[in-house]
Amino acid sequence: MFRYRRYRVFLAFAVIAVLALYKFGGSSASWREAASSAVGAAGLKSAAENAAQVDTKPRPAVAHETKSLELNIPAASSPQSLQTPPPVKKPPPPTSGPAATKPKPKQPPSIPTQIIPQPHGQPAVVDNGPDSPTSIEAIHWKKLPENFPVAPESLITLPAGKPKPMPKIQARFNPEDATTKADRLAKLEKIRGVAKKSWDGYKAFAWLHDELKPVNGSFKDPFANWGATLVDALDTLWIMGLKDEFGEAVKAVDKIDFTTTTRPDIPLFETTIRYLGGLVAAYDLSDQKYKNLLHKAVELAEILLSAFDTPNRMPETYYYWRPQFASQKHRANQGVVLAEIGSLSMEFTRLAQLTGEHKYYDAIARITDNLEEFQNNTNLPGMWPTYLDASGCGKVYADAPAQKPLRAPAGHLKDPLSDVSETVAPSPTEMLSPEGKKYVPLNLPEPISFTNGDAVDTEGKLSPEGEKNDPLSLPDPIKFTNEDAVGSEEKLSPEGKKYVPLNLPDAVLLLTNKKEAKPEAKEDSIMPGSAGKGQIRNWNGKPLQKRQLDVDLDEAPKKTPDDDKATPVEASSAEADTPTPPECVAQGFMSSPGYGREEFTLGGMSDSTYEYLPKQYLLLGGQVNKYRTMYEQSMDVVKKHLIFRPMLPNGDDILFSGKLDFPSKDDDKVGDLTAENAHLTCFAGGMFGMGAKLFDRPEDLEIAKKLTEGCVWGYSMTPTGIMPESFDVVPCENMKDCAWNETTYWEYVDPLHEFRMQSYNEQREKYEEQLVSASSWYEAQLAAMTPPPTPSATVLVKAKETSTLIFADTLDKRQLLDLVDDAKIAHAPSPTAGIHQDRESVMGGESEEGEGPPTKVQASLDIEEMAPQPSLTVPAFPYLYSPSPPLNHKDWVQNKIQEDRLPKGVTRIGARNYILRPEAIESVWYMYRITGDPHWREAGWAMFLAVDKYTSTVYGNSAIDDVTKITPELNDEMESFWLAETLKYFYLLFAEEDVVSLDEWVLNTEAHPFRRPE
What we know:
Elements: H1 4-54, H2 74-77, H3 98-101, H4 178-205, E1 211-213, E2 218-220, H5 228-232, H6 234-239, H7 243-253, E3 265-267, H8 268-285, H9 291-305, E4 318-320, H10 323-326, E5 336-337, H11 338-342, H12 345-355, H13 358-375, E6 387-389, E7 393-394, H14 489-492, E8 509-510, E9 525-526, H15 568-577, E10 585-586, E11 590-591, E12 598-601, H16 607-619, H17 626-641, E13 643-644, E14 656-657, E15 659-662, E16 672-674, E17 676-678, H18 684-694, H19 698-716, E18 726-729, H20 742-749, H21 753-784, H22 822-826, H23 839-843, H24 889-899, E19 906-911, H25 919-931, H26 935-951, H27 977-990, E20 1001-1003, E21 1009-1011
Helix pairs in contact: 4-27, 8-9, 8-12, 12-13, 12-16, 16-17, 18-19, 18-25, 19-25, 25-26, 25-27
Organism: Clathrospora elynae
Keywords: Calcium, Disulfide bond, Glycosidase, Hydrolase, Metal-binding
GO biological process, one term: ERAD pathway
């Protein structure tokens, strides 16, 4: 119990302490306010001075430890000034280049610093630069000796001949009138303005980073943080006449360090087409004046070339560049994407032409050779699957060699007796072995030993340890013998059983206690004193397990070919001569194992491999004819199996290129065609057009036009006027007759309507069967229940007098009358009958409730509450699933079209977003340059207006989530190809025709122009 008087002193002290804390706590808060207000103007030093002025009271001395605690905390030692947050305001649009923002040069990777919470509306800034106290030293790539170098005499060199004359690709254009020119220049300026805004946003918020986030004005680095947009847009700036911006970007290229990145791997394909292609193209376009562009291209190419250091010289498409891993031996992957390995040729070829280094061309020429060899060996000869095995390593199906006997390593079981070099004469015990080998007893742990004859030597001569050797008690029929002949079984066996030698591994020989090992058998013999490391199988009489060999005791051991060998040394030599199966068999490209059905397409994961075939032919001046052959073979297959005409309401005569899945589910078909049109496939129109002019294939030019028209139709079919990433349509049976059929269209939109109705009918039948069964069961359960009893008529019982009376004063008031006879109580007369009693004299006044002798209710009384009641728990009816009737075919299709916002003729939209892709406008530009038809400029301008309207932001243009919405949402992403490709193609469409002429330049898949050889 708490004693107040005892603890009153402590309570008083506690009250004083609380008041003191409150007082000093308030002064501390005022000190902090003064400090924070002063910091904004004078920094940390002035804040400390103000604190000293506010609180100048002397502090009590603090006891220190004898040894001071010293902690090396860089963050505490570096001066950091506290600043009051500035007022939130909208950042003004950038008006100058990167010099205005003074971006810091790219720093080595570091440990991220803790993000300090900032006021609302002001983003927190994470600084991981060199001044950061937590920065760590960056890892840099360095050139390592190659594991699989190519001999100089084996290099595949660039063709040394003069380029062949090439057919003209561009059309002849007529001079334009003044009105047309003015309109064209106005459109050109509009496109340049959009590009300038995107570039200014990148300079202001994402300088030297990979991509701008144009909605919130930040950046991200999905590649290697090497300024992807900066390098990718170099030639666009030059083409659009933004020479000042181009000069700033060229200087910034020197700040990019290709030898280090925070990313553990380098994507070979993306880095080659964006970075290497961008540097080489900018060097070409600027008349090779900016030498640093070529130097940076060589620096990057040397890193990328290290990915080719594999046994078959096929690259690792994701190169893990860090020296500790890169120094090891590696192979290319078994599941390589076709486009990633087949789209490296143009960039490395052009670099080889500019530098004269044949190793760059050798790297990609070997890929071409493998593609050529594999082209007619695929499941669809002429095309390549989207995934292929580039490892160069085939599986080996060879029987494993026979297992050799186990041998102890040299000196592992060495015994002092083995050092004696005296030659041992053959022992008579060798006669006991059918194989001609010696049998000796094992020297087992004491007191178990083998005997060395038929009697124990009492003098201890047979025991090196001077102990008596007792015979070993082995399971009954297996025993060791040390007598003179196998044939004398009955003499040697007291039980009259046959002795057989223990079938030990051939290489392990047992020696007698008296004899020494021969020098040549030293390593393969077990000497006395060394056998304790093992245990004889079945020593304790346990049955043999599954993996043990059963021994037939009635037969002598069979002789094997290995028993004819003279000595264990010879066996070891034979084993050494056995060839080891190779790890793999060299092979070229193969279909990737484990990918199930193969896919053949011109779309994603394949596209640029086919695109590079005619372009590489141009870049090499037509001197390597295999590129033309490979292109023509592949396009013949594409036209036969992949290109189709869609069924459309207006009967538009357009073409799409789908994808073919192999093998087909139908034995009569090569593969199953998916009638899809993807945005990535829209490049095919330009490729077919170029191939038609270059290789004199006039029928391909008509296909090129219709393929391009198909993508233009894809833009016009949506509310936004922008084509989605992919969508499906109904393929026509042939390209000539393709009338609209509503029934067929509905079948493709709802291909499972018959199955749906069939499934419903089956479920309904099953439900009805279950309902009948459940109803029968329920009725049976109700019938089995006991019906409630019928109340019987009231039985009147005549009261009878009894001689035994119970009076109130006989028992206590609360006492039960359990011992009173029920019959007597029931027939007891009332107090008014017979003898009259004075209640007041007995009970002391008025009568009380419940007074008097209780009586039990007879069962025969007609009382409703006491009558037997029926059970209130009835059996539960079984729960049955009642299938809901499905919508009919017409209603289902109409709901599907409305819910998915399907344009008329489209059966499914696979991906609704748009990420500023360039492939459609690319083919439109090619068609204009090849045909000269102004229709393509009209189509391209409509596409530009739609794209800019729905993707425009304050700082650039952003990808959108759904082109079928009236107001799509911005995804805050602006990939580098927006400036490198999309806007470049829009600009070139309205530029003068000699700007990047197709007869002088050839563009890679990222729209980077390389000068064709003259």
